[in-house]
Write a structure and sequence with these properties.
The chain is α/β, with parallel strands linked by helices and 523 residues long. It is 59% helix and 10% strand. The N and C termini lie far apart (57 Å).
Length: 523
């Protein structure tokens, strides 16, 4: 096994430039020697005999009796372990000594699934009253939040609840500890008011001490409803903070990218809010690099599955056939689940693929599983709502959409799709346009298909032609591939046929006026 990769060179440089190795000059020279010989000969050919004679300048006879090379190699191993436990803990690849010889091997970090994401400390809420019922709420809120947020692989949770006696002195002490070990702190307060309790939660940036998010909730005092409402509040807090379009994701996205695998996942999250060819290209390049540099990071594989699914549906990657893109999506999702069987993004990716294939029973199975695992993931709930509605179960799909929007009021524009699609299919064009007015075409350009179809059905052909032309600027080959494009968007419902009929009507009208039409196929 020879190493000529940039990753290998960078890993060696990172170790040599560290504080851990700063005062170990002889060990640094030994590491440089091993790296050079590994690159030239292959790791398995860097033997004890070679190290003893070529580096330590021993004769063959001296090498048999001396232990100096074994002692120094042992010291190198110890320093490497120390480095990766402290300074190099965020390295996605690690140097090690290959078993059976002294060559260097480059292996993925066993902990690389959590090295890059933000650290969030959760502490019990402050009791602003004296009674014990409020204290129970303070403790319960923290435990509910820990339970829900522990299911996400994009946050590192630091819990202070197991160390506290819940007194105010203890709370202050561990709030200070959280500030030293976390990037963000989630806490709040509970106080009694007539008829119930007022719960205030807030997220603080540890470095700047700025409160980045705050929200107030009402909790009824009725004991029979207390736990149900408490769980609902915890769900809304988790949905606000930990979804791909949530507060923490947006805060980290606004910071300079560090090139990590987690940064690649953030690129994908940004893409899911703006389904354009440009955002797709950025996310795909980042994720392909991420799965190579951090191959154990399940979330990156799951997001790459989403990228390939988008290629199948939207045709973003011309080099891939649509069937191959869908197969790649399934392969990446399955691989993510081998790394992390509870990876909710991967389970959702499989549900999406089964929907696309028309496998309704498998779609329902994976949808049910992921909603149970991550009830706070409003983005996943909304995606399943779209698929359910477009499968013909409009009532159930819209119930899921209503719930997703309730959990995340500031949601991406694509959440409105089943609402205007449902009104359009029923012929309620004004209601459909009302929902479409809530969508920014720059963030979800696919909505322009409905704008153009509705305008054509209303007889507003110049406006419809202008709308369709705007969409063609984003997807230049749309006219030639429109039937196929609509079939992939709505694979199991009459929606594609309705849109195609209205747009072909627009083509006919345009052709009668200009003699050229929209350059769409004659079907």
């Amino acid at each position: 096994m020879k190493h000529h990769s940039l990753q290998f060179d960078n890993s060696v440089k990172a170790v040599l430039g560290s504080e851990t190795f700063k005062r170990a000059s002889k060990i640094c020279k030994l590491l440089e020697f091993l790296a050079d010989r590994t690159a030239a000969l292959g790791a398995e050919n860097v033997t004890a005999q070679l190290v003893a004679t070529a580096f330590f300048q021993l004769t063959a006879q001296q090498a048999e009796k001396s232990s100096i090379h074994r002692v120094q190699i042992s010291r190198l191993k110890t320093l490497l372990t120390d480095f990766y436990r402290q300074e190099g803990r965020n390295q996605s690849w690690q140097l090690s000594i290959l078993a059976g010889c002294y060559g260097l091997d480059l292996v993925p970090s066993a902990d690389d699934q959590s090295n890059f994401s933000p650290r969030l400390a959760i502490i019990p809420f402050q009791n602003l009253g004296g009674d014990s019922s409020q204290l129970e709420i303070c403790i319960g809120m923290a435990h509910d939040l820990i339970h829900m947020l522990a299911q996400t692989r994009t946050l590192r949770l630091i819990s202070m609840t197991h160390q506290m006696d819940y007194s105010e002195a203890s709370r202050a002490k561990f709030l200070s500890a959280a500030n030293e070990n976390a990037d963000y702190v989630l806490d709040g307060s509970v106080r009694f008011k007539p008829g119930g309790y007022e719960i205030l939660s807030k997220l603080t940036d540890v470095k700047t001490c700025q409160v980045m998010w705050s929200q107030k909730f009402e909790l009824p005092s009725d004991p029979s409803q207390l736990f149900e409402f408490q769980n609902e509040i915890a769900l809304k807090i988790a949905a606000s903070l930990a979804t791909p379009s949530g507060v923490i994701s947006r805060l980290v996205r606004n910071k300079p990218s560090d090139g990590s695998a987690y940064a690649a996942v953030l690129h994908f999250y940004a893409h899911t809010e703006k389904y354009t060819p440009q955002s797709h290209a950025i996310a795909k390049a980042s994720l392909l690099s991420a799965v190579q540099n951090a191959p154990l990071y399940a979330e990156a594989w799951a997001c790459l599955s989403g990228i390939h699914w988008n290629e199948h549906v939207f045709g973003f990657e011309k080099a891939l056939t649509h069937s191959k893109a869908l197969n790649e999506s399934i392969r990446c999702a399955m691989h993510a689940l081998t790394l992390a069987p509870d990876c909710v993004t991967a389970i959702y990716a499989l549900a999406s693929s089964h929907y696309q294939r028309g496998e309704k029973s498998l779609f329902k199975e994976y949808s049910s599983k992921v909603l149970k695992l991550a009830p706070y993931r409003s983005d996943i709930m909304a995606g399943i709502g779209v698929f359910t509605a477009c499968n013909g179960d409009w009532e159930d799909g819209l119930v899921l959409m209503d719930r997703a929007r309730e959990l995340t009021p500031l949601h991406p524009d694509w959440y409105w799709l089943p609402y205007y699609a449902n009104e359009y299919r029923q012929g309620n064009l004004d209601k459909a346009l009302n929902y479409l007015s809530k969508v920014n075409p720059q963030t979800f350009p696919q909505s322009l298909l409905f704008f153009a179809a509705i305008q054509a059905r209303q007889g507003k052909y110049p406006a419809a032609l202008k709308t369709f032309s705007a969409l063609k600027k984003i997807f230049p080959d749309l006219s030639e591939n429109l039937p196929t494009y609509l079939q992939r968007l709505f694979p199991h419902h009459e929606m594609g046929h309705l849109l195609l009929a209205d747009l072909l009507d627009l083509q006919a009208e345009s052709a009668s006026e200009t003699g050229s039409g929209l350059s769409m196929p004659n079907l």
